[in-house]
Amino acid sequence: MNWLTQLPAHLARSPLVLVSVAGVRGSAPREAGASMLVGADFVVDTIGGGHLEWEAMAEARAMLLTGHRRPELRRYALAASLGQCCGGIVWLTYETLLPEDADAWQGRATQHASGIALLRQLDGDAAASRWSAGTASGALKLPATESARDWSLTQPLTPPAFCLNVYGAGHVGTALVNLLAPLNLRLRWIDPRADLLAAAPAGVECQPCDAADEAVTSAPTGSSHLVLTHDHALDLALTEAILRRGDFAHFGLIGSQSKRTRFRQQLAARGFTPAQIERMQCPIGVPGIRDKTPQAIAIGVAAQVLQWREALITPTRTGLDARMRSN
């Protein structure tokens, strides 16, 4: 939801067009529900790139230039008209957003960031989308004829099911947070040094915290944890707190095999069982990467985080695939 996070600040300066994938039939670059913001000279997020996205950007900017206000629904045959090898059909909606509504959009972004599920209802004969709190499946009602206005889109904006707590704002932690911030996950960044958290990307929840127990206690149940601070003693204190709490999905600790061995010995001496200690993954990151620069380490760890996320959300994935309905 990078577009929703950035929307209020951009909208306060100038009108925007919100472009959303309303429905998909066959193969397409993005799923229904994917959205992007189009301004006069910038774009936030993507609906899949390629010719489809260029057409959508041109359509949106034409609306901005002409002052067009009415929501629009467009159908694109990817192979026939756009030459994209996906070969499916995509329906896009276009909604012009005005600066006077920036505060309302800030409220929606704040609600979503706090874990509230939102529903967007956009009708062809309406002036703008309607919003409410709640959950539902995505749905697109197609118009009776090509020029009819009796279409409607229901788009759920569900808070991310995957929450990651990153402890440490050093070189690797900063590189990792910047990589992960645009993705669909709840990202919490914790470090005692508040000044290092000040440059956090939009949408990242920052928590300056001196006490390891306090930092871990505040994490949501069932979330994942990555410990990569500047201090081995703090790493160990955080590891103890995470393992004692126990209600986490994944836990990774930065370090070498020798650090893993040393920590295992220290944890065993403090009463942790072998089963508890085995839940600690150390080293972290996908295998096969020898580059030790912070950016390379962060890329390897980010890939592992995506694997964690996929394993967590796949069994319960409901998706945003819109149900197609015609009159």
UniProtKB/TrEMBL annotation:
Gene3D superfamilies: NAD(P)-binding Rossmann-like Domain (3.40.50.720). Residues 164-305 form the XdhC Rossmann domain. The gene is xdhC. InterPro entries: MoCofactor_Util/Proc, Xanthine_DH_XdhC, XdhC_CoxI, XdhC_Rossmann_dom. Pfam families: XdhC_C, XdhC_CoxI. This is Xanthine dehydrogenase accessory protein XdhC. It comes from Uliginosibacterium aquaticum. Residues 12-76 form the XdhC- CoxI domain.
